[in-house]
Amino acid sequence: MEISEGLAVVRTGVNNPGNSPGTATAGFFNPVQKLNRDITVLCAYNIRPRLYLDGFTGTGLRAIRMEKEAGIHCVASERNRAAYEMSRENIDKNSSSVELHNRTFESVVSTYNFDFIDIDPYGSAFPYMDVALNYVRNGGYLGITATDLSTLSGSVPDKAKRRYGAYVKNDRMKHEMGIRLFLGYAAKRAAAFDRGIAPLISFWHGHYYRMIIRVHQNLSMAEKSLRKVKFFSKKTSISSIYERRREGPIWTGDIQDEHFIRGLIYPDTVVGVKEFVDSLAYENDSCGFFELTDHASFHSSDLPSLMNSMKILEGSGYRVHRTHFSHTGLKIKKNSGDLDKIWDLIAP
């Protein structure tokens, strides 16, 4: 089948219409990942990296869009021969100058001096983190797509412990905690190479997490990053309704660069994402969030209206915003004392 996305027109193989990662087949295409690609193009358009690697190109779509829409020189790698041939056809079809290799990610990433490396593999990004962190240019960026959500969000705690050395509870905050778990792991692995990380943008969408982080070759930055990787307790940091349980270690620092998000310039080809991207800046207001459903359940109460709750809290002097991690969650900046008092304000 042939699809059009941004300024690219490509032939694909299997189309995955559902909300799942899909399987590793030549030319596999997942339309659910369009938001991922749109936001990556948007970020690169503003970052202006000198050399970008699409490490698991599949159909060549991401690299072609990056070149045509962000004006960036791109290298792409694809070890599957059939997918490589399809990518070659698509690059030629789009009159693109993307440099394509039928080689493994590891062999290509070590050959060039990339300042943006994109890791969006079939399966977990976990096996590729060390080589990417080690080879990205100082001050460069890693784009990471994680699809092993059952592990990261606490559904398979033994595997999370083996793979990432951490634990999070599988509850209504699991997707924020899953992103923070992965960022904590990235910070620890970066520090092993005397490197520090700074998240640029992080979000959850359907079956995947997407994170873009900046990597600095600097011992003091490595130590600063490690200080943000801690154990976390919802009971002490959010509300006394939660059980006493340590989660982590997770990244407890900012998961977005608010200044970067608010200063983004949008290319004409990236439409329909601005409201979502703008909202991400408020995810920094707290680690975790005030979950109305949890409080209603704990107090055996009806669920209060989200919008009415926000109006009440804003009227009481709180800075409050919605979170994309939950339909009934609120990010509340902790500048007004004990968050346990909030339920008394908004309880129906």
**Rg, Å, rounded:** 21 Å
Q: Please give the count of helices.
A: 15
Overall average pLDDT: 93
Structural class: alpha/beta
CATH superfamily caption of the largest domain: Vaccinia Virus protein VP39
Tell me the number of strands. 14
* Level-1 CATH class name of the largest domain: Alpha Beta
Coarse shape = globular
How far do the termini sit from each other?
52 Å
What quaternary form is this?
single chain
**How much strand?**
15-25%
Strand order in the largest sheet: 5-4-3-6-7-9-8
**Strand count, sense and closure of the main sheet?**
7 strands, mixed
Q: Could you please say which CATH topology of the largest domain applies here?
A: Rossmann fold
How many structurally independent domains? 2
Looking at the overall shape, the CATH architecture of the largest domain is 3-Layer(aba) Sandwich
Element-by-element helix/strand order = EEHEHEHEHEHEHHHEEHEHEHHEHHEEH
Point out poorly predicted stretches.
Answer: none
How helix-rich are the residues, as a percent range?
A: 25-40%
